[in-house]
From TrEMBL:
GO terms for cellular component: apoplast. Residues 1-26 form the signal peptide. It comes from Heracleum sosnowskyi. It is found in: Secreted, Extracellular space, Apoplast. Oxalate binds at residues 111, 116, 121. Pfam families: Cupin_1 (PF00190). GO terms for molecular function: manganese ion binding. Gene3D superfamilies: Jelly Rolls. Residues 65-216 form the Cupin type-1 domain. It comes from the Eukaryota. Keywords: Apoplast, Disulfide bond, Manganese, Metal-binding, Secreted, Signal. Belongs to the germin family. Mn(2+) binds at residues 114, 116, 121, 162. The lineage of its organism: Eukaryota, Viridiplantae, Streptophyta, Embryophyta, Tracheophyta. This is Germin-like protein.
């Protein structure tokens, strides 16, 4: 027979094992072969992308260049530009569960509040000074924020709303890694006020405690 304390230990072990399994399921699937280079021309729809025949794979399927080139922040309304390196740019990333971005900031530019539904992000400041932060889930909605200088690193947990702001008078640059080949991005303002077709102005007015005319003005901007 198993004692009461022994039963509790077994139960705790079961819970930990179950939780670990759920965490594993929350990230990209592990590859089952050396690589699965994406075949962008395949008509087959799968969770990810269909593999190209390994015999026709080349070194260029695992390569890209140009990340040394600054993004165009001048044409951005928020003063930032994100250069993405995901599976669409490097087909060899398919099934490997990683991607990265370069973020360029004009002086006082922002990377507006957004989420990555499929990835945690780890960001390193390469140049300049950034104020960064994220907000925890309801009901606490705790705002965790920090000022980062060159060489500093900060983590944004998967799915949480987060942002970055250049708080300097010169340009700033950051590189961020994400644990998904296609992390996705939902920019809050764009999603809420730029939905197509529109979310009812009555709904948004009540949700944001604004008058209907203000909501319609915001929708027109997006």
């Amino acid at each position: 027979m198993v004692s009461s304390s022994g039963s509790k230990v077994l139960f705790i072990c079961f819970v930990i094992t179950t939780m670990t399994s759920f965490v594993a399921l929350a990230t990209d699937n592990n590859p089952l072969q050396d690589f699965c280079v994406a075949d962008a021309n395949s008509p087959v729809l799968v969770n990810g992308l269909v593999c190209k025949d390994p015999k026709v794979v080349t070194e260029n399927d695992f390569f890209t260049s140009g990340l040394n080139v600054a993004g165009d922040t001048l044409s951005s309304k928020v003063g930032s530009a994100v250069t993405t390196v995901n599976v669409a740019r490097i087909p060899g990333l398919n099934t490997l569960g990683i991607s990265l971005v370069r973020i360029d900031f004009a002086p006082w530019g922002i990377n507006a509040p957004h989420t990555h539904p499929r990835a945690t992000e780890i960001l390193t400041v390469i140049k300049g000074t950034l104020r960064v932060g994220f907000v925890t889930s309801n009901p606490e909605n705790r705002h965790i924020t920090k000022v980062l200088n060159e060489g500093d690193v900060f983590v944004f947990p998967q799915g949480l709303v987060h942002y970055q702001q250049n708080i300097g008078y010169g340009n700033a640059v950051a590189i961020a890694g994400l644990n998904s080949q296609n992390p996705g991005v939902i920019t809050i303002a764009n999603a809420v006020f730029g939905a197509n077709p529109d979310i009812s102005a009555d709904i948004l007015a009540k949700a944001f405690q604004l008058n209907k005319n203000t909501v319609q003005e915001l929708q027109a901007r997006f």
